[in-house]
Amino acid sequence: MTLTLHHRRRTPARRVEPELMDDPRLDPRTHARALRGLARLNRLSRPDSALWPDLDRACRASTGPVRLLDLATGSGDLPLRLLRRARRRGRSLHVDGCDLSPLAIKTAQARSRRCGHDACFFRHDVITQQLPDGYDVITCCLFLHHLSQEQAIGLLCEMKRAARRLVLVSDLRRCRTGPAVIGATSRLLTRSHVVHTDAVRSARAAFTMEEAASMAARAGMDDATIRKGGPYRFVLSWWRKTS
C-alpha cells in the first residue's frame, strides 16, 4: 500500500447524514437543478485531471479500445470529460456509466447525445447488484462517502473483482476546513439548496486518506496507491497484476 501524506492535523470524526439528493421523494425539477449544480462544481474541481494519468497509461498500454465503466455516474460528468480528453489525445476509449437514479441516467444520456458521443448509461444498484463484467477500467467519483465503511469495502472488493486492469476512485477527504470551504464554494457556483446542503454533509461524511488506505487493504488492494487529487480530494488507484 502506497499512501502519500503530508503534515497530519487533527481531523474531526466522521459524521454521516442522509443527503437530500439520495431521497427518492425529491422533486424531479429540484433534482435536475441539483445535477446541473454538481456539474458546475465538477468543472471547477476537474476530477478527470486527477484520474487521467492512470487512464492514459492504461490506454497507451492497450492494443485495442479500453472500456471504462463509471459507477454512480450522476449526470455523466466524469466519463464524458474523460472521453473528451481521450479523443483529443488520440486514445481509443469507450465509456459507460451506471446510476440508481432514472433521472440521472436520462440526463447523462441526453448529455452524451448532445456531445455526439455513443456512451451507454444504464440503471444499476452498485451496492446490491454484481457489477457487469467486460470492463478494463472501473471508476467511482464522489460516491464512497455516501456509504458505511463496510459498504465501501464491499464496493471496493467488487470493483477489484470486475475490473480487468484498473480501479480508480476519487472522493472527498475529510479535514477540519473541508465543510466550510466546500459549502462556501457550492453557494458561489449554484443556487441549488440541495447542493448547498449536500456539499457540507458530504464533506463531513468523507473518509480520511488513512481510512481509505485501510479499506483498500481490507478489500485485498494491498498494493493500491492513494494520493491527494485536488482540493479536499484523494485518488485511489489499483492495477491488476499481469503475468
Question: Can you give a write-up of this model?
Answer:
The chain is α/β, with parallel strands linked by helices and 243 residues long. The model has no long low-confidence stretch (mean pLDDT 92). It is globular. The chain has helices at residues 28-45, 47-61, 77-88, 102-114, 149-162, 178-189, 193-205, 209-218; strands spanning 2-3, 66-71, 93-99, 120-123, 137-141, 166-172, 225-228, 233-239. Helix 4 links the parallel strand 3 (93-99) and strand 4 (120-123). Strands 1-7-8-6-5-2-3-4 form an eight-stranded mixed β-sheet, with helices on both faces.
- The total tally of domains equals 1
**Biggest sheet, strands in spatial order?**
1-7-8-6-5-2-3-4
The best one-word shape is globular
Kindly identify the CATH topology.
Rossmann fold
**In CATH's first tier, which class applies?**
Alpha Beta
CATH architect. name: 3-Layer(aba) Sandwich
Summarize the entry for a quick read.
By secondary structure, the chain is an alpha/beta fold.
Record the SSE blueprint:
Elements: E1 2-3, H1 28-45, H2 47-61, E2 66-71, H3 77-88, E3 93-99, H4 102-114, E4 120-123, E5 137-141, H5 149-162, E6 166-172, H6 178-189, H7 193-205, H8 209-218, E7 225-228, E8 233-239
Parallel strand pairs: 1-7, 2-3, 2-5, 3-4, 5-6
Antiparallel strand pairs: 6-8, 7-8
Helix pairs in contact: 2-3, 6-7
